[in-house]
Amino acid sequence: MSQQTAILHLPGQDPIELPILKGTAGNDVIDIRTLGAAGYFTYDPGFLATASCESEITFIDGDKGILEHRGYPIDQLAEHSDYLEVCFLLLNGKLPSKAENAKFKKIVSEHTMLHEQLSKLYSGFRRDSHPMAIMCGVSGALAAFYHDAMDLSKEKHREIAAFRLLSKMPTLAAMSYKYTQGQPFMYPKNSLSYAGNFLQMMFATPCEDYVVNPVLERAMDKIFILHADHEQNASTSTVRLAGSSGANPFACIAAGIASLWGPAHGGANEACLDMLIEVGHVDNIPEFIAKAKDKDDPFRLMGFGHRVYKNHDPRATVMRKICHEVLDDLKIDDPLLDVAMELERIALSDPYFIEKKLYPNVDFYSGIVLRAIGIPRSMFTVIFAIARTVGWISHWKEMVEQPGQKIGRPRQLYTGEVDLTFPKK
Length: 425
Ligand code: ACO
Prior knowledge:
three-stranded antiparallel sheet
């Protein structure tokens, strides 16, 4: 079949044929790369209809509420896999064999420790720093420790950077928390699972052993799976753009962490729990719904809405289930869960939310689970960053390894002054 094209009619020019590229799923894209030569750019602030790259990693159908990693639906991965297996899948494009799985986990566990000098960096931060601020700094600082082994053209170097990031991120994160608590850092324990080790580094002290509760360990692991990747979101696109110049991958991940921090992105889980606390009681819900609907009020229902999902976020469905499992196991009767469930029920039957296709996203229930596990609010986005690191590295690797990769360099619609004459003094 010959390639389909789109015909573009521009004023005073012959029609331009633009190739239509077909993916394996999702929207086809119009290849506009030759348009610049015709003297035009396309205009799409916020990337509402722009595919910034070609990728084989994650597919989302926002209208149907589908999320798949390398072809596997997220609910199946959350149910039958574990985080490190999902990491292998994202990084390598296929599920590991038993032997590959064991080897991958062993390598990840062997890189969990930090260079001792890196831990000294923490003391330069104020005790009351937000852990995400610390994470931006210390993750970028990894570049200073591993710059020599970073020749991007060498596959081995890219691979070792991926392992280092995956292994060290929970250590960096737990230390960001311990530092703000004034508690000693806990070294990683490589005999524990990825999630179990993170909980140990968060909650153990040198005076007291921490016994990992298997229900919480599994819940933590599932939270990591649910946040592992989400195609070209703001932070992943940031990592790709930073990496497109050939920058050090550790520095690129620091850029991703900065982007993730915002309340419209990863910071929403912290903001969502703050909001549930502020609502406080089901009786107050109508007031908050009214505020969310009021055009003159900047308030938004946190944990609701998504740029891509115009249907249920499939991660939210899994997260709601985890939430019930964890609270049941811990025998916690959290009034915030009642508030969340009632808020969801009311919003989903309200014409404003129905018309705008606003559904709960992954962050709506994650805060309640994390709170039940004992994770403080300021660490919520940090946990998202740990989980998303594998997505960032997978996309960075895919981009670097693509033939003909170019630096990302968007153009603009200029609306400022031109050709002014500088006043004589
Ligand atoms: N509460 C109330 N109204 C909302 C909400 C919300 N949570 N989200 C969107 N709307 C309304 C907007 O006011 C807008 O209304 P209008 O068309 O009358 O102007 C309309 O819905 C579309 O909203 P946009 O902001 O244009 O949609 P966009 O795709 O740019 O934003 C976003 C998506 C940022 C996630 C938005 O829904 C939001 O701010 N949600 C709350 C924050 C949140 O939960 N973020 C987490 C995202 S998931 C993640 O990062 C893991």
